[in-house]
Backbone:
């Protein structure tokens, strides 16, 4: 038990400090803004993840704990109706105080009290809640990277977040099809260790024969779609997708820019740079992934197919490109069939509850279940996901028009 | 073959005249307006269903056919990108010419040429296209009824569409649970006769043990939810549903009005009337159906569960309440487990393609497939559905916030 | 007094029947719709003008008068906060009942009771109120013509309202400048007879030397502006005007259409027709009038200048083109310096109260004063104005972006 | 001439450093955001005022001048169509780079080159352009104060900008009426020294007898209006004003908050504080000023009346409360009839060109003239206006619904 306490305390501090590390290259100005509703100010992420521990762990459980500032519940609650009133989401980018310094003090204060709490009157029954807080913080680490990329990438100066040398890869993994036989398979989380409620219950599913691609669609392949007039032909697009294309004048993935007739893209590393044609295409919406697959005469895998394929072929490869690489961009496939890292993969499945799904009681019950409509499931993690955060059963979800995250395409087909 | 020609010609005229019969009680003024984007002017329905036959059957196949008016393609195309430019949907209610008289002349002209075509140079290979046109017209008959109800029901005078005596039913079917055992089941259309592309392919699915209610949720039961504060408690609602409730100040089903402290509802028959508490609740959105089920500690069935249950218990009951009854309102259950008629039943399933689904080539390929995102499946037909239009495999679909149609709730649960 | 009673009774019926005459060429369908917020359904105009007499004259003054239908106050109130709740303006085009027939019965009923009232217990003190009702109805006659033109002119079939032979005029009045000397002038209404509150008080104003054009700007002159790139050069435009041009992709006056490379316009008489280049340009916004004048190096007259010029040169010419001509379109100038008829003339003046202005007590106090912000004054009447409705002191007003009415340009300059 | 060069060089640096002084109390975070479209980020003001000198003075006139950064034209152009593309106004708050430090370097760089230019190859013919740049910067100093107040005052923490002791005034100036006789008066700028184009031409105007209040309306008087139900009674309001009140749920001036049942307001000095009832009411829209005056049975003065009264009674009083006081809030009147300082005073006049008005050629011609529609004139300067920036002829203008600036009410009446 002592060992466990040490473990959770260390893990707590490791996760918490990683969040701050992600923000290190930022200027104070970068912490404040919210250019679109989906992007939150980095300062808000820093406060909100801290508020989670203060609100759900310290205040109800740590005797004698003094709230850092009674206004912070209002400022840093995200969407927990159970937790009271909050700044409306679109106003997050208008809030300049508390400043970055005060938010960092808030983090230090809560960290110190968490450390104290974990080392003294910690109750094992809280372990899953604390682990939820850490997983939650890891999710926000990933969102932070998307949001920082959006904030800097939409700036007319295209400032780089980092300027590291980029390993020039010349690998070109040929497309191969991995086959799965029809039958009953079992999916969903069924293990010890942490998992989200939406990965339950563990259940049977029937799959038909199908094949899934051994790698993600590359920038080169996607550019072929663009050059074949993919964005101009309604036949490839869902009806709402076509409206979205027209209304927003979409003609390329997010963060792509035509410079002197050549497509470039904004990367956190290096700013505006030439596109590596062998790397996976990313920053595309479900609408685009679906249109691309239709244009190819293929389709996206369902999340059931994806999970079964992952369990059969993928397993999380330790060479996969997760956030630990620190480069925050997809890289060309290393030919090892990994189904993880680089980009979240849009599936053909709408985000709905599994059989036997029950949302937990209390505020944490608002974590996943209430979003189960009008969104699509993505699988596999990305170059902005911490390696120890992802599992084959992990269900991510976004609205079908969104694309500021690292999203990509893995193709499938009937056989 | 001669027999078939006669048959299709008769069926053609029968379906076509039914559309006009639905409009008979209208005043000319009622044919013109579009109070919300989802409602089309009755005049437009009359023209659009005719345009379908002119555009897809007569013009390409009936030698020497002279188009009635070259402007009508622009006026009466709904959403077929393949068929050229069209009046934008929100403008349909601003178009006063052609008037009802001209549209009726257009119908007569196309009917006459279709009759001629079906009796002379008719090619059997067109049968499925013509049948599609008739099924399409039946769908618009149903929409016509919804739209007429909306146009009259939102009028401050609450004019009645009909004033027929209403059979006072005192039947109260007790709620019973019909059970299905876990296992592999086959669903989807697998028969001769007409079906839509979205009912294919016929495929296996794995179901867990479950039970489904023998009847729809009644107005009485729904009122309990309302009186228990159902519309004020975020805990029952999906996040987007809760936003919808707040933004639109929803507090009761569509067409409900509080008169002197008592809930009434607008019915086509009789106008504003007291609510029959034993009749199924209707005009509710998926958001409300889902919230009600959660409040009950139950859930909606998936479409797979629904279809298997229907095949096991329901079969289309000849006593079910379809449009042939002419009363266009749900009635108390007659205790026969029918899963058809009265109200379309919201399922827990998002509208996505079945395994092996392929959209047909050409303009008719735009019929179903392009709507397969952000919508939910409904099953079973309603009091506005023609009896010969419905099948156990029939997949209807609407956005989760819509409720101007006859939609209702059948509950399910794990066992 | 008897004479007066007869006079007002006759005048009442004459004005009322003129409203109905304007609607005669309409189909029932045309009476119902509201394609933009500024356009009201003709059926609504018919009801609203009747409601004015029922609400302000009959109900408070005619003993024993029975309201026609208690719902009509809600249906036909326009903007009188004092008169209770009302259909929100944007919903007027969704109201199909009462139908045209019932509204005509409502008119007949109120007419009959007004006739009875005027012939029996009529109180002279009500004369100005009744006259206000008649002037109000004449204003709605003019709006009816604009609205009918918009409803038919935006229909893809461009149906004609009338098909009368059009006198081909070859008159080309040369532009001349009428000069006024600087000094103190008196303006505003100062006579017996009817006038609106906004024409008061009669007051002194100081004018500098100026000159005003003897005729309106013609289509030929306006086309020169268009062909000189007037709509593409921000320099001519007010800032809000330029935003309006860009956002709405304005490139010609309202109701102009390019057919096979030639500009045509929709006219009530004849439908889509070639443009008479010698006729005054019409259906332009203040934004366009102001931009045209700036492009010419000239300006619009202030309303004070206009009124003084009118009193000096114009007087209402009995040959001017008012609604009695029944042709409802501007015609080439007959070289007589008339400042009335054809088109309302945008002035440089914002619509604000005159010195000493006081709004009347009661509901009629809502008639003019509450609109005195963000609108511009127009003067002179149009081809849709009844001749006996206009005066040199008459102040019309519209928002600067509107142009569905007969509006035009008279130029002025400093000398 | 040497003397003049020294003078303009000193004045240049004095004005420029005042801008920076205003920003001194800010945190870096405060410089970045744009909570509403009317508020610009302080960082943007700092850059934009500098861009003015770089673009209009240095680049065209200072030989060998190297642009600081070629991206800055795009970033810091406000609305000059002549000066090329620019960040759309609503996006200003999403631009984090250049940061405050770089913008300050930009200021220093341009200051240094301006100093060099003014001391060497300066051409007297540029004097009026440079003075325009300085007046422009003073206008932005005032906007900076409004915007900082909005950014801090809408923050849930209500941080104070300063915490200086506040002189408790117990002065209560009784309301007196200053009378002006009817006659011809001359207004507009007619002097040496700087003035804006919109103050020209100097011209005659006719005024009737009127009286104007000797002081602004106080918070106490305004609260009486509120407590008399002023915000709930449509009769006091212009039609568009009433819509604005309802839609925005307006019930008090901007920056007022009810704390424990007592009205407080946010002040730059001290944050959320009790209201000094003797101080002038401020942060009200024209709509509110007009409604208040109507409720009193009085009216606002026209700008002609105001200017004549100012020339007769007011003159700019050296005791008036301008920005030099550094307290940035209106104070109780010192009983000296001053018509300047404290609050801009809404007049009854729409902002339109004076007789003989001509916009200058070139980009500076976009300064005033293009805004002359849909705005109202305000007079007199405020507690955020530099004393040497204001004149009796100075015409400020805002849209009638705006109120984030220091705006107030001076009453007038006919006599």
Residues:
């Amino acid at each position: 038990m002592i060992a466990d306490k040490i473990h959770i305390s260390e893990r707590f501090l490791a996760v918490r400090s990683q969040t701050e590390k992600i923000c290190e290259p930022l200027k104070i100005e970068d912490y404040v803004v919210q250019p679109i509703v989906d992007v939150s100010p980095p300062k808000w992420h820093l406060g909100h993840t801290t508020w989670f521990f203060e609100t759900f762990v310290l205040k109800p459980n740590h005797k004698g704990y003094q709230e850092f500032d009674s206004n912070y519940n209002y400022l840093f609650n995200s969407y927990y109706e159970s937790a009271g009133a909050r700044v409306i989401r679109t106003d997050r980018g208008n809030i300049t105080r508390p400043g970055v310094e005060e938010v960092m003090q808030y983090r230090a204060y809560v960290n110190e009290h968490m450390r104290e709490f974990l080392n003294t009157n910690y109750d094992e029954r809280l372990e899953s809640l604390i682990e939820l807080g850490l997983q939650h913080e890891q999710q926000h680490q990933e969102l932070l990277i998307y949001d920082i990329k959006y904030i800097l990438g939409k700036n007319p100066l295209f400032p780089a977040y980092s300027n590291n040398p980029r390993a020039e890869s010349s690998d070109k993994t040929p497309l191969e099809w991995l086959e799965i036989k029809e039958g009953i398979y079992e999916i969903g989380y069924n293990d010890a260790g942490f998992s989200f409620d939406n990965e339950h219950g563990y259940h049977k599913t029937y799959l038909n024969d199908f094949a899934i691609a051994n790698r993600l669609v590359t920038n080169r392949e996607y550019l072929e779609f663009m050059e074949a007039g993919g964005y101009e032909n309604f036949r490839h697009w869902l009806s709402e997708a076509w409206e979205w294309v027209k209304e927003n004048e979409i003609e390329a993935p997010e963060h792509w820019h035509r410079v002197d007739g050549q497509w470039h893209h904004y990367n956190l590393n290096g700013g505006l740079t030439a596109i590596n044609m062998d790397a996976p295409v990313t920053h595309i919406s479900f609408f685009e992934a679906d249109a691309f697959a239709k244009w190819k005469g293929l389709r996206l895998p369902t999340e059931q197919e994806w999970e079964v394929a992952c369990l059969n072929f993928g397993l999380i490869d330790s060479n996969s490109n997760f956030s630990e690489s620190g480069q925050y961009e997809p890289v060309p496939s290393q030919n090892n069939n990994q189904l993880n890292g680089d980009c979240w993969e849009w599936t053909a499945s709408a985000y709905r509850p599994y059989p036997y799904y029950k949302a937990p009681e209390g505020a944490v019950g608002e974590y996943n279940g209430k979003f189960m409509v009008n969104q699509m499931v993505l699988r596999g993690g990305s170059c902005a996901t911490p390696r120890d955060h992802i599992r084959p059963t992990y269900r991510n979800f976004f609205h079908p028009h969104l694309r500021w995250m690292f999203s990509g395409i893995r193709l499938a087909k009937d056989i």
